[in-house]
Amino acid sequence: MVVKPNVLKHHLKDSWKSLRRNGWMSVAAVSAVTVTLLLVGIFMALLLNVNRISSQVENDVRVRVYVERGTTKKQEAKLQTELKALKNVKKVSYRSAKTELDTIVGSYGSQWKMFSGDKNPLNNVFMVDTKDPKATISVAKQAEKLKRVAEASYGGSTAKKLFKTVDTIQRWGVGFTILLLFVAVFLISNTIRITILSRADEIGVMRLVGATNGYIRWPFLLEGAWTGLLGALIPMLVVDIGYSLVYRNAGLTTAANGYSLYASVPFLIWLDLALAAIGVVIGALGAVVSMRRFLKI
């Protein structure tokens, strides 16, 4: 339904007056939304960054295919071709036993140099990157069945726990966020209900003079939106300050491990917009719930 600018301006003023007229009830509703959206904002920031770091960790998971000692170059080339042909394999790279030993020497000290040359106990290795990180387990099992493969590892139980943990966080995170939003809608709907009941006589007069249903409903809808928007302001401020502090303190640590949180800008801008939008939407939904139940027009 299209609303004329002058009528919309009147509804905006009316909804703002209604908020002030309700006094402590409006404060209570805004406070409840503030607490709810603060938890939602913190949880959204946490969930999004956990998903980001989990994706980065997942992308680092590879299948290490150890080649049997004594395998010829021709046999290794054939094995590499077979590995590339496996389902969900994106890339296969080769690391010689010497390269593996040099990596250990660089990480753990020169005492490992005694194993150089013919004394090197390590195997040549194919590093297999998968198209989907979760496919590493199945690719490892397929690779172990190929000839000239001594072992295929993918992190074992660590990889399984990682994938399971990520799925659990995503499911519970979405569920918890939806629950919080339902609570906010319920609280706002109760506040709007009180407003409707307190203005019953006024609504009756408006009906008698021919006011349309839409005209009567708009102020309550806007009042709910105002409640949600005002309730989002403090969570936006708190989450911005808190996340900036966490990002500065945790940035170096995560970078040292090869991972990173979302940069404060533009992440916080989008998060603030999301919180404001969520506040307005749940406020309007709360108003709609009350109007359907208590405004029989």
Automatic annotation (TrEMBL):
Q: Where are the transmembrane segments?
A: 23-48, 169-189, 225-247, 267-289
The answer to whether the entry has keyword Cell membrane is: yes
Subcellular localization: Cell membrane
In what residue span(s) does the ABC3 transporter permease C-terminal domain sit?
176-296
Q: Name one Pfam family in it.
A: FtsX_ECD
Q: Where is the signal peptide?
A: none
> What NCBIfam families is this protein classified in?
FtsX_Gpos
* Similarity comment text for this entry: Belongs to the ABC-4 integral membrane protein family. FtsX subfamily.
- What is the protein name given in its UniProt record? Cell division protein FtsX
The source organism is Lacticaseibacillus baoqingensis
